[in-house]
Amino acid sequence: MMKGLGGYLLKRVFYMLATLWLIITITFFLMKLLPASPFTNLDKLSKTQVEILYSQYGLDKPVAVQYLIYMRGFAKGDFGVSFQFKNQPVADLLSERVGPSLQLGLQAILFGTLVGIVLGALAAMWQNTWVDALATIVAILGRSIPNFIFAVILQYVFGLRLGILPIAMWKDFSYTILPTLALSMSPMADAARFIRTEMVEVNNSDYIELARAKGMNRFEIALRHGLRNSLIPLITLLGPMAVGLMTGSLVIENIFAVPGIGEQFVKSITTSDYPTIMAVTVLYSAMLVVVILVVDLLYGIVDPRIRVAGEGDK
Amino acid sequence: MNERFAPLELADAAYEREKNEAPSLGFLQDSWRRLRKNRSAVVSLSVLVFIVCVAVASIWLTPHNPNRQQLEHGNLPPRIAGLSIPGFDGKMTTRGRVIDKYAQEGIPDDVSYFLGTDDLGRDLFSRLLAGVRVSLLIAFIAAFLDLTIGVAFGLISGLGGERVDSVMQRFLEILAGIPNLVVMILMLTIFKPGILTIILAMIVTGWISMARIVRAQTMKLKNQEYVLAATVLGQPRWKIALMHILPNISGVVIVQMMFSIPQAIFFEAFLSFVGLGLRPPNASLGTLLNEGYKAFRVLPYQMWAPTAALSVIMLAFNLLADGLRDAFDPKMSDG
Amino acid sequence: MGNILEVRDLQISFDTYAGRVRAIRGVGFDLRQGETLAIVGESGSGKSVTSRAIMRLLANNANIDGGHIYFKGDDLLAKSERQMQGVRGKEISMIFQDPMTSLDPTMNIGNQVEESYRKHFRSGKGEASARALELLELVGIPDAKRRMKQYPHQFSGGQRQRIVIANALICDPDILIADEPTTALDVTIQAQILDLMKDIQKKVSTSIIFITHDLGVVANVADRVAVMYAGKIVEIGLTDEIFYDPRHPYTWGLLCSMPTLAASGDRLYSIPGSPPNMLTPPTGDAFHPRNPYALAIDAQEEPPVFRISDTHQVSSWLLDPRAGKVEPPGEIRRRQEWFAAHRAAG
Predict the structure, then answer these.
(1) C172, C201, C222 — which closes off a domain?
(2) Is residue B138 in a domain?
């Protein structure tokens, strides 16, 4: 089995690296193609000053050499120097900002999926009742309405009207509540819908019928058989959820002035800070590729059918 | 012997009666019948038809010119002449005092702005109509291009033979590995922001799911008897694709397209809201939200109208898409 | 031997989009201590609905319109859902048709077998495990101790059905309802499972209700057979009576269409037509449109029950003294002659 899994893992990691390399390369050359110069006020500088500036950023060398330097830097975790904040390495700029983004993302995905699972499970247990209707409404709203709309409404209600929660900045936990809520709506909707569908299907299966025939009650069946069988496939939703969170974080961090990667990304784009844009692009892609790989492996670990099917090979 | 106990002349008629009596319906007819039963889908469809009509009509017919600035009419709250509903009576609360902004600014009584004006004195209702039109246009064009590219790619990949298919699939896999957000942002960094750029940015990766679905369906249909029969009869492949495969996957294609429209509306709104998409004075749902949000803490009414419009459109498209999916394939329904 | 279960005039209908379907129209029978009763019929005859009614596991759109199901004297239909949960699995348990889908794929089989024991006897893990091991050995799972840790997909279909049987028997129930327990299995495995059930019944003296559409299976396992058609029992009797002295034309049809016995003839007989649409059941005797022996009255009135012997009852107008003598098919005549000769001999 180890050989099978090891080979599989190796292949996946290879594909993962190939995708990443492709993204880095494409990003790099696209940025080089840009007609605009990274520096805004070149006209005011003398020719020598411009040359110094260019050599400082390594822009005087041929593109191919720049590419090699860039790739070598990447391997060492050096993403170059920011154009926007002179003299600040991109790596430092971003590493300060990973924390808030990660915290926000994790809180949102945890809260969202937990509430979604409970909602979906209750809806499946009491099909066609008000619980079910509520879950359906949450699912359709969360899926249809963009999270920045939720963010604005939350800001208005809890920040401006009720004045009970801070509407911007990132200091203590209370500052994280509104952005987390806004960001968690979509995972909540996805999880609720998924778990409900899955559990309704599981509830019609023969093994649930058998559990009923054993005299188990609704709750025992839902907990021991229904949820267990519905949660495993939920793992496949983690990939799309991570994509959604990344997209969402751009706008949510902006609205709530969270000092995270997404907020920086938007700033870098508007100021044409190419090294930072490239770094974030690659960071996002890398995170995604890793999440998808982890989800795949996790599925294999959690599902006994896949897990033991492998063991049978030895 | 009692005649009631005489052998029954066996009713061949009885066998006849057992024949299946349900009339058979065509695929589209049947789907339409199922869709009509779905109340939320029918309501959504009506709402969308109405919105599209209004958006089209607004090309020629708006209460005010959506782009005319009139600084002396700046930041007026909503007023509908003859109505005195709070929120639409031209009054607003400033520092705890309710004032009639129209009277204060000396606006004539016959001038009203249904949804108020922005800081430059542009009529928000007219801008909203124009914005909805632009957003829908972007979404429809993007969805149509996704459809065209995706269906063509999927059909060619599905019918083109093993080698063509494997090349096309590798290409798809690599493209699909790149997060669409990243692609969009890169496109927007490289090209000048505008309607075309946004559409382009969305379709670079947008067609992938359509291509995958079409290919999978084509692979499935390829081995059906009637397709094989057409092949044996020497029909060219493009003809088989258009005459036999395409009509049979139209349901799946329509559903997928219906899901990609709200997706496109979302991305336009999202990008413009963050300031990466369309820029004012262009009106779109995204730019209206972006501008409304700037004044949001003081003048929330400037935000609510585009918020409501976006939410209603997104909801309606999603509900309609759900309804269509259930109507085309009852088995796919989530019950 | 007393009756452990008495079903009286059971009436069940289903609400469907097209209207109300009367699936069970006055079914009554007894189940005796330690016997195996087979209920035979085509799909849609109501045999599975009857068994689920005993478990009170009917679908949500089912209505019990009348009747009683007395289990040890108590009417199961009068029990609350909570009380029924105490009966299910403990006193009456059930096994289903498809062993491939009857087990939870994500739970190891040890836990699944123990589940009902721990629930009903509130026992600890150790005791339940020991009991589960005992049962798995009883049903013939080799190396049971190790295999308890394994998951359903690691077992073959036949083994899974053994596990399902262990599941059902762990609380030592009074009644085991087996709903087509061998239908989804290969023929060779079928025989093994049938042998196992007979064997187990000897050891644990459970009463068994064996539901099947396959008369061939019945001959080997059942003490008595009830034949159902269109929501009614049309003939019930000892296995010998049903196989060798059948009186209902539907039973004749079933017996004539059994492949093993038709081997002598050139062509396999089949009952003409298809089971009736229960939304609009035929008037009179529901079988009459398919019955080559139908009488005029069959189309008008439902037949009463005629007693052939203490154990053998038939519901058909053919047995009315006013009806003329009817020659059963040749195959049935041979059976009756053979049976008469045998009985005379001893």
Answers:
(1) C172
(2) yes
Q: Who contacts C234 (Cβ-Cβ below 8 Å, separation ≥6)? A: C227, C228, C248, C250, C251, C287, C314, C315, C316
Tokens of A84: 């926007």
- Does residue A219 fall inside a structural domain? yes
3-state secondary structure of A41: coil
* Residue C232 near residue C26 (C-beta atoms within 8 A): yes
* A166 found inside a domain: yes
DSSP code, position A186: H
Q: Is residue C223 part of a domain?
A: no
Domain limits for position C112: 99-172
According to DSSP, the β-strands at C207-212 and C175-179 are parallel
Q: Which of C172, C198, C223 is the last residue of a domain?
A: C172
Contact between residue A104 and residue A258 where contact means Cβ atoms under 8 Å apart: yes
Decide if C300 touches B, using CB distance below 8 A. Answer: yes
pTM: 0.82
pLDDT at C262: 46
pLDDT in single tens digits along all 346 residues of chain C: 589 999 999 999 998 888 888 889 999 999 999 899 999 988 888 888 999 999 999 888 899 999 999 999 899 999 999 999 999 999 999 998 888 889 999 899 999 999 999 999 988 888 999 999 999 999 989 999 999 999 999 999 889 999 999 999 999 999 999 998 888 888 888 888 888 888 888 888 899 999 998 888 888 889 999 999 989 999 999 999 999 989 998 998 888 887 654 455 556 677 877 788 878 888 888 888 888 888 888 888 888 899 988 999 999 888 888 887 888 888 888 888 888 888 777 6
Q: If 0-12 CB within 10 Å is exposed, 13-18 middle and 19+ buried, where does residue C13 land?
A: buried
CA distance B118 to B38: 40
Q: Are residues C251 and C340 located together in one domain of the fold?
A: yes
Q: Which domain holds residue A287?
A: 2-83+271-311
- Judged against a pLDDT cut of 50, whether residue B21 lies above it is answered with no
Task: Give the residue from chain C lying closest to A233, CA to CA.
Answer: C106
Q: What's the rounded Cα separation, in Å, for the pair B168 and B159? A: 12
What residue type is assigned to position C98 of the chain?
D
Domain assignment of residue B314, given as a range: 44-64+125-328
**C30–chain A Cβ distance below 8 A for any pair:** no
Tracing tokens 């989009």 back to the chain, one arrives at C17
Mean pLDDT of B116-142: 88
Measured between alpha carbons, how far is A72 from C163 in angstroms, rounded to an integer? 60
* C238 strand-pairing partners: C224
CA distance, residue C294 to nearest chain B CA (Å): 5
To probe the interface with C, which of A125, A127, A128, A207 has the most C CB atoms within 10 Å? A207
Yes or no, beta carbons of A207 and C101 under 8 Å apart? yes
Q: What is the ipTM of this complex?
A: 0.84
Q: Are residues A200 and A70 in the same domain?
A: no
Peptide bond into B86 cis (omega under 30): no
DSSP character string of A67-119? HHHHHHHHHTT---B-SSSTT-BHHHHHHHHHHHHHHHHHHHHHHHHHHHHHH
Whether the CB of B22 is below 8 Å from some CB of chain C: the reply is no
B81 belongs to a structural domain? no
